[in-house]
Amino acid sequence: MEHKDRNLEWQIAMRPGKRSTLAKSDTMSQAEKIKASVRAKVEHCFHRIKCQFGYSKVHYRSLAKNSNRLYLLAGFANLLRAEPYMMP
């Protein structure tokens, strides 16, 4: 309830079944398409971290160690993504 008095606009995507009922030319449909494209760009990085590096469960007890592991894996994922551009 800490956001009760704030004027916020939550950018939560619609469920796929509800989105499919919208007309293609509707402004709501276009807004949902933009949200989906942003989500697809972000989720791709997490997919790479989880599948290539096996980050499915936490291995350490402390939050700091798990955070450091996630930062390291995100850095490795960025290096793999940038590898084709680094060749002379």
Poorly predicted runs = none
- Give me the Rg, rounded: 19 Å
Largest sheet: none
Assembly classification: single chain
The count of DSSP E runs of length 2 or more, i.e. the number of strands, is 0
Beta-strand proportion:
under 5%
Q: What is the overall pLDDT average?
A: 84
Distance between the ends = 54 Å
Shape: extended
Helical coverage, percent range = 55-70%
Helix-strand string: HHH
Domains (count): 1
The total count of helices amounts to 3
User: Structural class from helices and strands?
Assistant: mainly alpha
Summarize the structure.
The chain is an all-alpha fold and 88 residues long. It is built from three helices and no strands. The radius of gyration is 19 Å and the shape is extended.
Account of the protein in words:
The chain is mainly alpha-helical and 88 residues long. It has one domain. 64% of the residues lie in helices and 0% in strands. The chain contains 3 helices and no strands. The protein has helices spanning 16-20, 27-53, 63-86. α2 (27-53) crosses α3. The longest helix has 27 residues, at 27-53. It is extended. The mean pLDDT is 84.
Fold blueprint:
Layout: H1 16-20, H2 27-53, H3 63-86
Helix pairs in contact: 2-3
What brief labels describe this structure?
3 helices; extended; 0% strand; 64% helix; single chain; mainly alpha
